[in-house]
Amino acid sequence: MQVHLLLPEAELLRDSRHIGRLVLIVCLGAVVLSVPLLLLLFRNQFLKPVQRLNRALASMGQHQQLIQVPIQHEDEIGELSRSFNRMSLALQESNKQIRTLAFQDSLTGLANRRMFIKMVRREIERSQKHQQQFALLFMDLDNFKQINDTHGHPVGDQLLARVANIIQGNLRADDGLSRPIVSDNPSGLARFGGDEFTLLLRNMESALDVASVAKRLLSALAQPIELKGISCYAGSSIGIALYPHDGTSVEELIKHADLAMYQAKTSGKGNYQFFSKSLATQSLQQARLVQRLHHAVENQAFELFYQPIIDNHSRDLVAVEALVRWTDTELGVVSPGQFIPLAEKNGMIEAIGNWVLEEAARQLQTWKSAALPSIKVAVNISSIQLQQPGFTRRVMALLARYQLAPQDLYLELTETGLIQGQEQVMENLYELHRRGTRIALDDFGTGYSSLSYLQNLPIDILKIDRSFIINLQESNNGLILSAIITMAHSLGMQVVAEGVEDQSHLDFLTAEGCDLLQGYLFGRPSPANDITARLTNQHPGTFRPSPA
Ligand SMILES: Nc1nc2c(ncn2[C@@H]2O[C@H](COP(=O)(O)O[C@H]3[C@@H](O)[C@H](n4cnc5c(=O)[nH]c(N)nc54)O[C@@H]3COP(=O)(O)O)[C@@H](O)[C@H]2O)c(=O)[nH]1
């Protein structure tokens, strides 16, 4: 059976439109509802972790610290977070290494110069705020160069590491140690460079407190240090600057402590010295002196004076000591006692010494060619000159150039120059002696060498320091002089007495059998012409004390 339902077309169309609208509304509703949901999902799953990573990245760049993000997903974002954490750790590690290299001294593990400057800057800010004072100590080892040169750099390095330990071991918690900003080191101690150590002591109420720390460190560093069977005496000198009294900036405080240290060294080493304004003036004067000395070296603005040396048996003038003189156009007369040590410290002694040798040889050749009584010339040699490998060769070439024999030249060296005992010094000394040059040991008695030590060295003449003769009346000087003369003779050396100023000196030295005499009694250092005149008028055995 078939049923035919007849509906009007309009009605049908109306229903289908209604259904269509319904479907559209449902679809639109679904879209409207799902977009925020999808957005929420997108934000939580993707945007938020990426933003978190971005913030962590920015913070890492800004604070340079270790940042770790939580891993909340096991997807690509989770993997990205893991990679970020790994990178942050690696960055932190290399950052630490860079800071260590930049702020820590690799040899001693102490803070380095850069770190120390930061520490002083921080300490200034702190002390300014709390109205406190602090002390900056500048330490320099007294014998480092000598130990390093004699035993080599590995021993030198070991010594520096041991010194760092010794200083640290002698600092106490109540010394007011300033803490370093970076470094595992617990004290405000730094290796400033080479053999220089610096230390900050905060809240120092009185200079006495600082002095007691300095004394403690000096006495610890005065003890022998055993290194691979070698006993080394490092010794140290300390300069101290106080904030704010001696300076209010990092540069000023370091400069003033360094100056005070230099002063401590020049006044006998193994000492401490507080900065004072007069030190600053002295250092300006020194700087000017060094500058004028450079000028003098460039222009060879020196003169040579000669002081007679008399044979005590014949009373003839047998030699002269060449003594350098400098009259500066701005500073006036500057004594060699003042400028020779400066020249040694500032690399000018070789140029001055070479000029002196050349001029002395030229003058001796002039006297020789004038057929005057034959004399020798004694020239002072700095140990720095003797450290030059080509020194002997240059001396021999000079003698040949002026047709002089090696025996015409006496080279005067000081005890300290010899005692340093460097290989090259000894090599030159033995070679010069072997070739016939006579070696005189100058200023004997002012150093620490014993005659028994000196007997192993190629020394022909012993010059007793003038202080023994000038102060002959003082307690044991007569006995000491007599013992030195006897012992030197028994070792086959000739003896020269310097500083013979009056008849009592002459009588004593003659009675003791001293061989050669030098001093104001026989003539002050004077220009070559004076010696020429004396030699011209000299009759054998008549070189008498000069008129007062
Ligand atoms: N490396 C070099 N050193 C040199 C040179 N020229 C000098 N010097 C050293 O400088 C120091 C001071 O020397 P100077 O002022 O020339 O003094 C010498 C004499 O004038 C002085 N003297 C001599 N006799 C007397 C005396 O009777 N009384 C007295 N009060 N002083 C006297 O002694 C100095 C000589 O000393 P020395 O050299 O130890 O024999 C001095 O250390 C010089 O060495 C140079 O060219 N190179």
UniProtKB/TrEMBL annotation:
Molecular function GO labels: cyclic-guanylate-specific phosphodiesterase activity
Record's GO cellular component terms: membrane
Assigned EC number: 3.1.4.52
Membrane-spanning parts: 20-42
Species of origin: Oceanisphaera psychrotolerans
Reaction(s) the record says it catalyses: 3',3'-c-di-GMP + H2O = 5'-phosphoguanylyl(3'->5')guanosine + H(+)
Pfam families: EAL (PF00563), GGDEF (PF00990), HAMP (PF00672)
NCBIfam families in the record: GGDEF (TIGR00254)
Secretion signal, residue range per the UniProt entry: none
Protein name from the UniProt record: cyclic-guanylate-specific phosphodiesterase
Location of the GGDEF domain: 132-277
SUPFAM superfamilies with a match to the protein in the record: EAL domain-like, HAMP domain-like, Nucleotide cyclase
Required cofactor names: Mg(2+)
GO biological process terms on file: cellular response to nitric oxide; signal transduction
Sorted UniProt keywords: c-di-GMP, Membrane, Transmembrane, Transmembrane helix
Stretches assigned to the HAMP domain: 44-96
Cross-referenced InterPro entries: Biofilm_reg_signaling, EAL_dom, EAL_sf, GGDEF_dom, HAMP_dom, Nucleotide_cyclase, Rev_trsase/Diguanyl_cyclase
EAL domain mapped to chain residues: 286-539
